[in-house]
C-alpha cells in the first residue's frame, strides 16, 4: 500500500554559507532531497528571517533544521520558535529536529542546552543506538548540546561525548544531534569555508570522512516517523 501523501513543513533556522549555496542549495533543499523517496510535499518557512507558519496544522509534519545560532541566544525568532514547538507538541503533529532543531525541541519542552565545556564534535562520529542493537555513523558539527533531556523524552542514541544525541518524544517527536542531511561533499565544503570557528588542531583531525555513513537507515527512520499515521 502506498503511504498517504503528507505535507511536511521545514522550519529553516539558518542559511547555507553563500560559498556553498550554488552547489548544495539551502538547508531546506537538502532535507527535500534527503526525503525524496517518501510521499511528501514540502513547505518552507525561513523562521531565522521571521517567517513562521500560522499554526501547527499548516503541515502534517514538521522538521526543524540546523543553525549557526545557539538556542540560548536572545533572538525573538528563537523564542517564537520555542512557542511554536510547544504548540505543535500540544496539537500532536509530528516533529523531527536536527542539530539546532534537536536542541530547540529539548529546550522548548523543559530540557537544558549549553555550549559544551568539553568542546566540539565535528566530522565522522559514531553513536550507539541500543534499541536498534547497532551503531550508526553520521557527520557532526556542534559545540552546543543537550546536557539534560526533557522529562518527556527518551534517550535513544548517545556516545561518550554527547549523552543525549538522539531523543524520542513518544509518538510525537524524534530528534538528532548529528546531520543525516550532510553529504561528505557538503561537509568538506563546510570545513573549507567555516573551519575558522574550530580549534586549528581539531581541523586537521576531522578533515576526512573516515567511515561509511549510516545515512540510509537514519533517513528511513526519519521518513517513516513523519509518514506514520497517528
Automatic annotation (TrEMBL):
One of its GO terms (molecular function) is transferase activity. Pfam families: GATase. One of its GO terms (cellular component) is cytosol. InterPro entries: ChyE-like (IPR044992), Class_I_gatase-like (IPR029062), GATASE (IPR017926). Residues 74-184 form the Glutamine amidotransferase domain. It comes from the Bacteria. PROSITE patterns: GATASE_TYPE_1. Keywords: Glutamine amidotransferase, Transferase. SUPFAM superfamilies: Class I glutamine amidotransferase-like. This is Glutamine amidotransferase. The lineage of its organism: Bacteria, Pseudomonadati, Pseudomonadota, Alphaproteobacteria, Hyphomicrobiales.
Amino acid at each position: 500500500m502506498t503511504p498517504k501523501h503528507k505535507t511536511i513543513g521545514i522550519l529553516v533556522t539558518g542559511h547555507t554559507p553563500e560559498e556553498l549555496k550554488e552547489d548544495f542549495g539551502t538547508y531546506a533543499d537538502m532535507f527535500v532531497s534527503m526525503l525524496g523517496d517518501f510521499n511528501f510535499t514540502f513547505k518552507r518557512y525561513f523562521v531565522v528571517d521571521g517567517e513562521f507558519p500560522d499554526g501547527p496544522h499548516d503541515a502534517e509534519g514538521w522538521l526543524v533544521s540546523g543553525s549557526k545560532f545557539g538556542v540560548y541566544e536572545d533572538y525573538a525568532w528563537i523564542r517564537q520558535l520555542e512557542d511554536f514547538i510547544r504548540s505543535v507538541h500540544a496539537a500532536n503533529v509530528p516533529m523531527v529536529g536536527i542539530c539546532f532543531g534537536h536542541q530547540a525541541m529539548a529546550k522548548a519542552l523543559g530540557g537544558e542546552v549549553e555550549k559544551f565545556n568539553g568542546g566540539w564534535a565535528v566530522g565522522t562520529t559514531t553513536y550507539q543506538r541500543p534499541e536498534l542493537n547497532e551503531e550508526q555513523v553520521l557527520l557532526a558539527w556542534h559545540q552546543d548540546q543537550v546536557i539534560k533531556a526533557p522529562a518527556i523524552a527518551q534517550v535513544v542514541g548517545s556516545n561518550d561525548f554527547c549523552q543525549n544525541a538522539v531523543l524520542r518524544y513518544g509518538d510525537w517527536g524524534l530528534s538528532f544531534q548529528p546531520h543525516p542531511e550532510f553529504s561528505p561533499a557538503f561537509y568538506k565544503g563546510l570545513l573549507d569555508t567555516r573551519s575558522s570557528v574550530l580549534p586549528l588542531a581539531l581541523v586537521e583531525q576531522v578533515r576526512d570522512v573516515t567511515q561509511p555513513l549510516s545515512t540510509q537507515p537514519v533517513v528511513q527512520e526519519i521518513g517513516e516517523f513523519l509518514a506514520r499515521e497517528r
